[in-house]
Write a structure and sequence with these properties.
It comes from Ferirhizobium litorale. By secondary structure, the protein is α/β, with parallel strands linked by helices. Helices cover 39% and strands 20% of the residues. Strand 16, helix 14 and strand 17 form a beta-alpha-beta unit. The two termini are 16 Å apart.
Length: 480
Amino acid sequence: MKVLSVASEVFPLVKTGGLADVAGALPLALGAFGIETRTLLPGYPSVMKAIGKPAKRIKLPGLLGEPATLLDVEHQGLKLLVLDAPAFFDRSGGPYVDATGKDYPDNWRRFAALALAGSEIAHGAIAGWVPDLVHAHDWQGAMAPVYMRYDTRPERPSVLTIHNIAFQGQFASTIMPGLNLPPHAFSMEGIEYYGDVSYLKGGLQAATAITTVSPSYAEEILTPEFGMGLEGVIAARIDDLHGIVNGVDADIWDPQTDPMIAAPYGAATLKKRRKNREEVAKYFNLDHDDGPIFCVVSRLTWQKGMDLLVDAVDEIVQHGGKLAILGSGDLALEGALLAAASRHRGRVGMSIGYNEPLSHLMQAGSDAILIPSRFEPCGLTQLYALRYGCLPVVARTGGLNDTIIDANPAALAARVATGIQFSPVNSGGLRQALRRAFRLFDDRKLWTQLQKQGMKSDVSWSGSAARYAALYSSLVQKGI
């Protein structure tokens, strides 16, 4: 089977979040099921630099009014179709925002072009390679099923994956003339959304099937609390909705072979983990004592519950713990956490920004990771933590609920617990979870048991890739 994946970011070429990890790892895992995936992604400067000289070039003249070329290349095992369209993607800022952090005003056009290119590939733009199915990711890829639906050529099945429904690609209706869509596409059954255009809403209407990244999140987005205004659209497609939990690349995230950590180790050699713990303390200027090191690797936003973390810092320090923070986001939250680090020198350290090697070291050297998200479609950070024996302390929501087994008395007795869940998701709930973590940490034998149980968890893509393969096969066999 041949599958075209349409994504705005793909690890290791470009990454701002978990979408890139999924778009980079799932195609490799699907290979075991006889599925050949080619991934269409934008030709950002970093991507163009990394791919060197491409093997093939396919012209797409006049792609939404701009010249574009498809570059057919292979990079670290991934088969890629890079959309080389300088007018859209050759920019000095990030994938979605400029150097000042503001959205590019023509994002609507940039990612419509990506999606339109995907539709053209689905309809035979590449001689000798026509996909059986198109898999689009998030709002940036969601227009691919829309363009396929309104094309007069035979349609192929498509899947749209919602990684985070909070980001919907909503724009003013004035962009309609620039989208190369028929006027009737601007309707309730199409891309119209309260008088605006919504790329995600259009994709939800047009895709043959919809997936999201955990079973719990699939249930949550049917409610007004989590559906972000699209719960009605999704409820109408409930028979086509599938919750499939994400996996991680077990080769990249492996403490026994990870070149980014100070000392490799495994479940049978946990004592070697101490060297990584020392390096984390050194990097963040934390006191070298036996108090637990909690870490945070996250966007610093309200969604991620970072305001709850601000409220909990003093509690961590008062109980003898330490805190290492890596991330960036809301300036007010950054400032509040920097102030906490200044107030608690030796107990709280912070690094602003994105640092992939440091994130690996933090998982390998911290005792526990805090993930107090108000909603979390899947989350990958807790899966990395399980692999590295870093105990996840998580809010009971979305994929966090599906992937972490709470250390309640029954789970501890059965020796199946892998972390701590808390609810309600507020300051009191987080502080109570922290007190539980301190009590567990005081029993080192029990803590080691939890670490080893977590490290036994299968968080690879094998099971989830099998579910995607089965879904693809059913859609291709069924046809449109």
